[in-house]
Each structure stands twice: as C-alpha cells, then as structure tokens.
Amino acid sequence: MIMEDNLTLDHIATHDDFDLRQICRGDLTEDRDDSPYTLVNNTCNYYDPPAVPKLLSTDLSIFCINVQGLKAHWDAFQDLLYKSCGDSKSFDIIGITELFSMNKGECILPGYHPLHYVTRNDTTKSKGGVGIYVNNSLQYKHRPDLSLFIKHVFESTVIEIAFGKKHILIGSIYRPNTYPHADLDIFMHNMNELQSILAAENKDVYIMGDVNIDLLKFRDHSKTSAYIEDIFSQGFLPLITKPTRITDHSATLIDHIYTNKQNLHATSGIIITDISDHFGIFSTIKYNCLQINNTPSHKMVRSFNDDNINKFNDILSQSDFTTVTNQNKVNIAYIIHFWTSIK
Questions:
Q1: What is the pLDDT of residues 292-312, one digit of tens each?
Q2: pTM of this prediction?
Q3: Which tens digits make up the pLDDT trace of 35-44?
Q4: Three-state SS letters, the chain
Q5: CATH architecture of 2-303
C-alpha cells in the first residue's frame, strides 16, 4: 500500500511510483529494456464512464468490478454499464466479485446470458462470491475442471468462450483479505497451479478479479514479490497497472486482469465509479479476424539440411545471451527469456 497525505487522482494517474509498468521497468530487472512491459502494446489509464464507449469496437472487451453486493447495487451497476457503453458495443465479458448471496433467475442483465456464478456454501455465504456475464453474441461453456473453490482462501470460476474460431478461457476470482479468509501462502500455491493448468490448454487466458494483493508493494513485500514473479514465470502479464482502490491517504492495485496472450495489443483502464470502494477495470484486446478465421492453404515444414544447420550455428555464435546468464535469480532469467522470445 502506498500511503501519502491528501492523495489526488491526478497525482496518482501521472506519478511513476503508482504505475506498475514503470516500477517493473526500473526495479524488477537490472536492465530497463528487459521488462515484460517493453515487449507488449498495452496502455492503462483512468476513465470516466462516458469516455469508455469509444474504446470498444469489434475487439474482445472484458470488464470486472467488485460490487460488494450485486442485488444491493443493481440499479447503480446497470447505470454504470449504460454510461460505459451507451448505444455502442457492450462489454463481451463482465466479471463480478463480492456479489454476495444470489439465487437462480436474479439479476438478469439485458443482452447477456444469465449470470454464471459461484457463492460460498457455508455460514458466510452472504459474503464473497464471483460471477460472469457473457454477451448474448457469444457462446460459452462452464469449465468446472478449471474452477477452484477453497474454503477460507478464495473462490473462482472459469468459462470457455468461442470467439471467431478461437477458444478463450476466462476466469473470475476473489480472494478475501480478512481473517480467517486470508491465507496468502495457500492462495499463492493454488493460483500458481491454476495458471499452470490454464496455460497448458494452449489457449488465450484472461483471469480477472479482486485478489487483495497490492502489486505496487512488490519492491517492499517478499510475498508480493514472489507472487508477481510467479505470474511472469507462468507467461502471464497484469494488464491493470495503476491503483484500483484509492482513499485520501492510500492507493492500492488489488483488482487485476492477467493474460497469457502473445503479441498483445490492448487498451486497458480503470473506470471511476462509486458503486463500491473499488473502481471498475477493463481491457479491450485486439484480435485479427483474418488470423482467427483463416487456415493456411499450405503446410510449413522446417528443413534440417547441412546448409541450414550451419546457418543456425552461425546465428547462435553471434547471439548475446548475457541478459539471461548475468541474472542471479533463475525466475528473473526465465521471465526475460520468455518475454524476449515472443517479442
């Protein structure tokens, strides 16, 4: 948590100390050019709701918000969506965290499939809970094999959507931060395992939600540092890089969207709202429809003749691997290798 007196949104929006992208470029690696954020095209800024519609087009758009009770804030939630979309394209996917208690058939959102949700099944079921709205223009299926619910640690649900000819995995996750629902070690272990399983599907993955881990603390908090290094080492990148919960004296980046999409070109942002004490977060990701829908007319193969092998060896002999070999931490070396390989 970054704490100062009389914080203002203008100061937070423009100061490098409140931007994970800038912090990573200077601190996560010794060489500023080796940060994963230098290898992708993603911006993250603050937006008033009326400024969001112009950012939504035919690309995949994802929105997530902690509502602290969906039924209690239903009218305000719908009003926020209307202001953020207007008469233009609606968000494709909407993630809800802390939706609290929910019954089948409640909170029907026009233009969307019925809410897919998971709530707690014990005496605390009135709290927590996660859900996903899917736009009617998309087909989806629940992936219970990928959805985890660990009592007193976190709850999540994962769906798979068909986007063109591409299949994409999207998860909504909530981790509480109050005792006894705040075991960070167990959460980190299971989150790492979940990301590994999702990545093994060889599909684009998006994980969104309120994780209650302030990524801006990774320089000063060892577990946060380990958490973000695990995210990078699994090939995931946080798209939201500025604080999502702001008070007069603190600013924390606790609402996240992660993706493993390679060759990323995205516009991400934080939507200013007072529905709860969290702002909304979104990403709109470019997908080349021609790449999604077209199948190559011929098969490409690699020729391993002597001439090509000699050329390959010559290229290797001229390559500089010191940015990896000079690292003292294997996780950092892997991060640099992975993101450089997909540049």
A1: 444 444 445 566 777 777 777
A2: 0.82
A3: 788 878 999 9
A4: CEECCCCCHHHHHHCHHHCHHHHHHHHHCCCHHHCHHHHCEEEEEEECHHHCHHHCCCCEEEEEEECCCCCCCHHHHHHHHHHHHCCCCCCCEEEEECCCCCCCCCCCCCCECCCEEECCCCCCCCCCCEEEEEECCCEEEECHHHCCEECCCEEEEEEEEEECCEEEEEEEEECCCCCCCCCHHHHHHHHHHHHHHHHCCCCEEEEEEECCCCHHHCCCCHHHHHHHHHHHHCCCEECCCCCCEECCCEEECCEEEEECCCCCEEEEEEECCCCCCCCEEEEEECCCHHHHHCCCCCCCCCCCCHHHHHHHHHHHHCCCCHHHHCCCCHHHHHHHHHHHHCC
A5: 4-Layer Sandwich (3.60)
